[in-house]
């Protein structure tokens, strides 16, 4: 009768011992005492130098008298060093390039003259002629490009019922506006202060200090704002942006549908011209000294002209293209073991862990690229774990067999009954080259979601079809694709509820229709 308790005690002891060993293994390097464990004595004979001939993927490197690089080796090394730095700089500064592309694009292509000018995407949302990273056509948007160096402290007077976000010039979160913002959906006056501002501010404002001069504001029309010109007029009556010093001033409100816009960061050497413009304009403190040091080796230094020679121009062009290539791999062929939202499905996270791209004090640089090469806007509300609040996004690049989605083929997605959303769901097709709305022809991208009231099956599920032609009788449930292109999907949950957050509701994979 005593054997069983003794065995249990022994097993428990082994478990505790195993746990102690595990904990010890995890912390051994952190607690290493070099005074006790520096190892055996070494002398000059123990040093192992790199050889005087090194094979690399950029050629053979040769060194005279064991260490002096030959003239040809020097050229190879500096070429590769500059190329590696250019490639990494392109990826490091991708968020800043992205938001700069948006702000400059809106001013250039929509004809904004001041921060008071507003672009309204009222169709609802965008058309394929306006290139925004994974912008959508499910909700009405209003956008503004603010410049605190030009206007000083600036007011965004927001109406009730918005769902919006404001980001700085490094595409970092400043504030939400609306139902998940400090105004709690009631609207109000948001006052944005420029870097270094030390004056007093009046009462009655939500005050936000910005580390950058240029900032981007995006508001979704979450209430009954209408569509088309009605939505444009609604925002003209209800949304104001103006300098605090002057008070409200006249702005131009533009219906942007079909006007054309390129907000994307360049994927060639001109990206470094954009980057130089950012560095010259914004405070040095916006970026880290390591980042700025890398740019300095490429000739981008605040207060100095950027005049790359022909050699450097070729390197910068190649660096941008390699950066884009690496970004494509990270987005479309992620090697992160946690990329899938459900382990047995091909639906992938767009934010891997959080919206700061930092974990345990370490920058999660691949997670940053995963989001910023494919999408825009950063807000904690984009991965809200509060049921019914914020939004959630999943992307699908492959079918149930693991093959990339091909616009010349037809696929079926079965959306299970009772999708876990408080507001609505929608699925949209995107062009993998631009990561913007796919143009299946005639600039008419179609999203399908609960607002479109697609035909449901008897059990409440909905079959959505993707392909160049609608299957017979399925026109209302069809998302057209371009037969000459691949495509990928974004599934949006507006107001995700427990079934999504707790992963008890599962989204099916796409199946090829034979």
% residues in beta strands: 15-25%
Gap from first CA to last CA: 66 Å
Biggest sheet architecture = 6 strands, mixed
What oligomeric assembly is this protein in? single chain
Alpha-carbon Rg, integer: 27 Å
How many β-strand runs? 27
Share of residues in helices: 25-40%
Form type: globular
Unreliable stretches (pLDDT < 50, length at least 5) are 1-25
Instruction: Quickly give the structural class.
Output: alpha+beta
Report the mean per-residue pLDDT as an integer: 94
Q: What is the spatial order of strands in the main beta sheet?
A: 9-8-12-6-4-14
Tally the helices: what do you get?
Answer: 11
What does this structure look like?
- The protein is built from eleven helices and 27 strands.
- Strand 17 and strand 18 form a beta hairpin.
- It is 27% helix and 24% strand.
- The radius of gyration is 27 Å and the shape is globular.
- The chain has a six-stranded mixed beta sheet with strand order 9-8-12-6-4-14. Strands 16, 19, 21, 22, 23 and 26 form a six-stranded antiparallel beta sheet that branches.
- It starts with a helix and ends with a strand.
- The protein has helices spanning 3-27, 34-37, 71-92, 94-110, 148-151, 228-238, 270-281, 289-297, 310-332, 365-372, 498-501; strands spanning 53-56, 59-64, 68-69, 118-121, 130-131, 141-147, 154-158, 162-167, 173-178, 188-193, 206-209, 214-221, 240-243, 253-255, 261-262, 347-349, 358-359, 362-363, 391-396, 411-415, 421-431, 436-437, 448-449, 462-467, 478-480, 488-496, 511-512.
- Mean pLDDT is 94; it is low at 1-25.
- Helix 3 packs across helix 8 (289-297).
- By secondary structure, it is an alpha+beta fold.
- The relative contact order is 0.12.
């Amino acid at each position: 009768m005593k054997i069983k308790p003794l065995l249990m005690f022994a097993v428990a002891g082994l478990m505790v011992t195993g746990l102690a060993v595990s904990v010890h293994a995890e912390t051994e390097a952190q607690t290493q005492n070099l005074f006790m464990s520096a190892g055996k004595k070494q002398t000059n004979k123990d040093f192992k130098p790199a050889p005087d001939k090194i094979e690399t993927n950029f050629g053979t490197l040769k060194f005279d008298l064991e260490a002096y690089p030959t003239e040809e080796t020097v050229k190879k090394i500096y070429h590769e060093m500059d190329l590696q730095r250019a490639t990494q700089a392109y990826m490091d500064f991708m968020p800043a390039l992205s938001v700069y592309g948006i702000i400059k694009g809106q001013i250039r292509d929509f004809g904004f003259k001041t921060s008071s000018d507003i672009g309204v995407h009222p169709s609802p949302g965008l058309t394929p002629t306006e290139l925004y990273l994974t912008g959508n056509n499910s909700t009405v948007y209003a956008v503004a490009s603010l410049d605190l160096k030009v206007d000083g402290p600036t007011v965004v007077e927001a109406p009730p019922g918005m769902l919006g976000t404001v980001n700085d010039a490094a595409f970092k979160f400043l504030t939400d506006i609306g139902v998940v913002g400090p105004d709690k959906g009631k609207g109000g006056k948001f006052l944005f202060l420029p870097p270094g501002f030390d004056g007093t501010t009046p009462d009655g404002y939500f005050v936000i200090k910005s580390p950058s001069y240029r900032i981007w504001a995006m508001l979704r029309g979450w209430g009954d704002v209408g569509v088309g010109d009605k939505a444009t007029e609604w925002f003209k009556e209800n949304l104001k942006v103006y300098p605090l010093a002057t008070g409200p001033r006249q702005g131009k409100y533009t219906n942007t549908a079909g006007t054309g816009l390129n907000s994307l960061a360049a994927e060639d050497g001109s990206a470094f011209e954009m980057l130089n413009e950012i560095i010259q304009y914004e405070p040095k403190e916006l970026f880290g000294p390591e980042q700025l040091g890398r740019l300095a080796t490429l000739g981008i230094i605040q207060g100095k002209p950027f005049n790359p020679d022909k050699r450097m121009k070729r390197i910068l062009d190649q660096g941008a293209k390699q950066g884009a290539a690496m970004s494509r791999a990270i987005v479309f062929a992620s090697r992160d073991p946690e990329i899938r939202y459900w382990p047995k499905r091909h639906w992938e996270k767009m934010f891997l862990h959080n919206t700061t791209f930092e974990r345990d004090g370490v920058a999660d640089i691949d997670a940053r690229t995963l989001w910023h090469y494919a999408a825009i806007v950063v807000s904690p509300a984009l991965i809200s774990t509060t049921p019914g609040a914020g939004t959630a996004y999943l992307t699908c690049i492959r079918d149930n067999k693991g093959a990339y989605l091909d616009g010349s083929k037809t696929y079926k997605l079965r959306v299970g009954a009772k999708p876990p959303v408080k507001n609505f769901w929608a699925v949209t097709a995107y062009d993998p080259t631009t990561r913007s709305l796919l143009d299946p022809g005639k600039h008419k991208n179609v999203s399908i979601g609960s607002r479109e009231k697609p035909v449901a099956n008897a059990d409440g599920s909905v079959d959505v079809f993707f392909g160049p032609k609608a299957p017979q009788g399925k026109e209302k449930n069809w998302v057209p694709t371009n037969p000459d292109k691949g495509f990928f999907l974004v599934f949006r949950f507006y107001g995700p509820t427990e079934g999504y957050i707790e992963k008890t509701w599962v989204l099916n994979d796409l199946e090829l229709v034979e």
